[in-house]
């Protein structure tokens, strides 16, 4: 199934049924009188958020939703039947805007949340409604009111606690498959991930948080280059960014005696700044979200830990000047998503940051990491 996260649809409420013009003809009522019933109300169109859906796939095939009209009234003061309401299910995280003006109408953030998009028209009054002492035989009735109609733009923004961002092939999909039960496509070429992937991470204390693997970003993504520009909106809701850098070049330098470590570090910093620049150009507020920097694909921890630590400290010294706040206690984290090295320490730091974000507490510069016994348990 394709990942559909945008759709434009037309919805309209049902017209109200017309009132009836009728007069009594019973033998036991010689004087008769008006007995026209009211028309039924038109059906309304509403939306309801549900966790059962993950995309806007259904709107790819059906783009027009018209609620049934109310039935007309009839004699003997019989009111017409109301038109049935239409309830359209949408995934949690859906944003609905007016297609013409772009005005934000509703943001679905909770399961079961509902919103009435178009109300049905009211049914017209029958002639029995207009009887008075001076007008005892009205020969007219009201027509039903026209139901509301509008064109809407639906946009899905995934809800996740953590958004994994970075260049293509940085190891984001491998990381989410390591820390959760998500099984995204993993291959050794860029843009393997074509759609966002969600995974649930369970901590030793049985608490969980949701991670989103966002397709790789490239320079110019905010202008439509690469694939990530289609999914930048999905990271707007996340509470924390996990920014993954590809540490492969550190591996190469470890095997070359003439390698320039400073040049390698500048290369990593440059790529780090490119992604942050793209986030800022898309939405400046993204630059102020909490972030944890990770160097991935560093599998030489046992063979040359001094090189890795030197690179880590050099990057750490630059973090504050780049993003304007102090790094976490162990940031940047050095991990191998393939072997699992450093993953536990990273998860505890991420979980601590999420807990602070959920509680609204001020983030502590130094994130306490568990000791070795806590991690092994």
The oligomeric status of these chains comes to single chain
Rounded to the nearest angstrom, the radius of gyration is 30 Å
Summed over residues and divided by their number, the pLDDT gives a mean of 81
Rounded to the nearest angstrom, the distance between the terminal CA atoms is 39 Å
Going by CATH, the homologous superfamily of the largest domain would be P-loop containing nucleotide triphosphate hydrolases
User: Would you count the extended β strands for me?
Assistant: 14
What does this entry look like structurally?
The C terminus is likely disordered. The strands form three sheets. This protein has a six-stranded mixed sheet, with helices on both faces. A five-stranded mixed sheet has the order 3-1-8-5-6, with no helix packed on it. It has two domains: 156 residues, GTP1/OBG domain (Spo0b-associated Gtp-binding Protein, Chain: A, Distorted Sandwich); 215 residues, Rossmann fold (3-Layer(aba) Sandwich). The protein is of the alpha/beta class and 377 residues long. It is 21% helix and 20% strand. The chain is built from six helices and 14 strands. The two termini are 39 Å apart.
Task: Give the structure's gist in a few sentences.
The protein is 21% helix and 20% strand. The protein has six helices and 14 strands.
């Amino acid at each position: 199934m394709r990942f559909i996260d945008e759709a434009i649809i037309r919805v309209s409420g049902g017209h109200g049924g017309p009132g009836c013009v009728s007069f009594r003809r019973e033998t036991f009522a010689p004087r008769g009188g008006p007995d026209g019933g009211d028309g039924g109300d038109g059906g309304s169109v509403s939306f309801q958020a549900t966790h059962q859906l993950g995309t806007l796939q259904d709107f790819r095939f059906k783009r027009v939703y018209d609620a049934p009209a109310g039935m007309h009234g009839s004699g003997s003061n019989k009111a017409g039947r109301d038109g049935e309401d239409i309830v359209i299910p949408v995934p949690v995280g859906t944003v609905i805007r007016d297609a013409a003006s772009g005005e934000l109408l509703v943001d679905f953030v909770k399961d079961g949340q509902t919103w009435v998009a178009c109300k049905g028209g009211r049914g017209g009054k029958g002639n029995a409604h207009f009887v008075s002492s001076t007008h005892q035989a009205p020969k007219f009735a009201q027509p039903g009111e026209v139901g509301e109609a509008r064109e809407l733009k639906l946009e899905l923004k995934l809800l996740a606690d953590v958004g994994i961002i970075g260049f293509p092939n940085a190891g984001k999909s491998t990381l989410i498959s390591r820390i959760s039960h998500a099984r995204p496509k993993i291959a050794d070429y860029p843009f393997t991930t074509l759609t966002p992937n969600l995974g649930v991470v369970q901590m030793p204390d049985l608490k969980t948080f949701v991670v989103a693997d966002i397709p790789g970003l490239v320079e110019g993504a905010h202008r439509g280059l690469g694939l990530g520009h289609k999914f930048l909106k999905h990271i707007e809701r996340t509470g924390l960014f996990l920014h993954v850098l590809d540490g492969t070049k550190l591996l190469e330098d470890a095997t070359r005696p003439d390698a320039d470590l400073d040049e390698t570090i500048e290369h990593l910093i440059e790529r780090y700044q490119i992604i942050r620049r793209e986030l800022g150009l898309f939405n400046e507020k993204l630059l102020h979200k909490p972030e944890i920097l990770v160097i991935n694909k560093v599998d030489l921890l046992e063979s040359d830990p001094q090189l890795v630590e030197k690179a880590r400290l050099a990057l750490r010294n630059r973090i504050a000047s780049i993003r304007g706040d102090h790094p976490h206690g162990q940031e940047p984290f050095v991990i191998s998503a393939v072997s699992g090295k450093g993953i536990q320490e990273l998860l505890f730091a991420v979980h601590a940051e999420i807990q602070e974000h959920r509680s609204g507490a001020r983030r502590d510069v130094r994130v306490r990491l568990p000791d070795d016994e806590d991690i092994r348990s």
